Amino acid sequence: MRNTAAFDNKILPYVLLLPQLFVTLAFFVWPSIIAIIQAFTYEDAFGGSLEFVWFENYKILFSDQSYLHSAKITLIFSFGVTALGLIISLFLAVMANRQLRGVVVYKTLLVWPYAVAPAVAGVLWGFLFNPSIGLIPYFMASLGLMEWNHRINPGHAQLLVIFAAVWNQIGYNFIFFLAGLYAIPRSLIEAAAIDGAGPVTRFFSVVFPLLSPTAFFLLVINVIYAFFSTFGLIDALTKGGPSGSTQILVYKIYIDGFRNQDFGSSAAQSTILIIFVAALTVVQFKYIERRVHY
User: Fold this and answer.
1) Are 173 and 216 in contact (CB under 8 A)?
2) Membrane-spanning regions, if any (predicted)?
């Protein structure tokens, strides 16, 4: 006779779900509905008048050169953060997977950056690369490499926010890549070595195909991170400058909505950004996942 657990209270499960449902509705669903409605309206900064303008906010956006420039900057930024973050993290994970002296300390130090909040990471990198008192610009100038100043040079600012964002995300990527490497049977790698495959061949023919599910998961996560989670870093580091060179779309939404009080345009930008990222994720799952070996 099998003993089966019986749960006779039919109301308690719904009561236990109520807090999570409330949080989801209050902080995710309801704001999304309000943003979609606001995208079709025009409201003055003081909330005195509200006018339904249909798709006028979207028409203005796609004819606004600053918005198109921000979209271009976002694509460059997200590609740089995702590509560099995955490549560097994978390399570090492969190195940490070897039998090295002090490897535990090495792994711990690589994980630490993920514990730093994006805003704090922005302050740290801003201090290190400060054109007046920063250590990195000082050493660059003393070695005759370049005169670093991300406050007035758009190229320097773009490189700085990309490297800072990659550094802040390395720990997260490193943990997953290292876990994926631990899951690969050593016997497969040893068999490839016995067959005469060198280290590079073993990595690309054995290790990386088995690591592709982890790589695909991190690809999606890093794209979302670059689009949304780098707001605090950019706000603390460059505030979108100079000349809008680091003003990605999520930061422009903040500028237009909270500083300029243009709620309709900000809501329209939010809707477009969500749709674009959702479409990009669907494309990744439809086409890139085909190369994943489960």
Assistant:
1) no
2) 12-40, 73-97, 109-139, 159-182, 203-228, 267-288
Residue 52 sits at φ, ψ, to 5 deg, of -85, 115
Cβ pair 118, 169 in contact under 8 A: no
Give whole-number Cα distances, 186 to 41, 92, 97, 209, in Å: 60, 19, 11, 15
**Has this prediction a pTM greater than 0.90?**
no
Which tokens in the block code for residue 39?
Answer: 């995208």
| pLDDT tens over the chain, length 294 residues | 456 666 677 788 888 899 999 999 998 889 888 888 888 888 776 666 778 888 888 998 888 899 999 999 999 999 999 999 999 999 999 888 876 676 778 778 888 888 888 999 999 999 999 998 889 999 988 888 888 999 999 999 999 999 999 999 999 999 999 988 888 888 888 888 888 778 888 888 888 888 888 888 899 899 999 999 999 999 999 999 888 899 999 999 999 888 888 888 888 999 999 888 888 888 877 777 666 655
Give me the residues paired with residue 51 across strands: 42
Pick from 29, 123, 111, 73: nearest CA to 226: 73
Please name the amino acid found at residue 183.
Answer: A
User: From start to end of 19-105, where are the E strands?
Assistant: 41-43, 50-52
**For residue 41, how far is the Cα from the chain centroid?**
30
Distance linking the first and last C-alpha atoms of the chain: 39
Tokens standing for 100? 């090295």
| Distance between CA atoms of residues 103 and 108, nearest Å | 9
**Alpha-carbon separation of residue 280 from 5, 109, 230, 283 (angstroms):** 44, 33, 18, 5
Which domains does the chain carry?
6-53 (no CATH), 65-291 (1.10.3720.10)
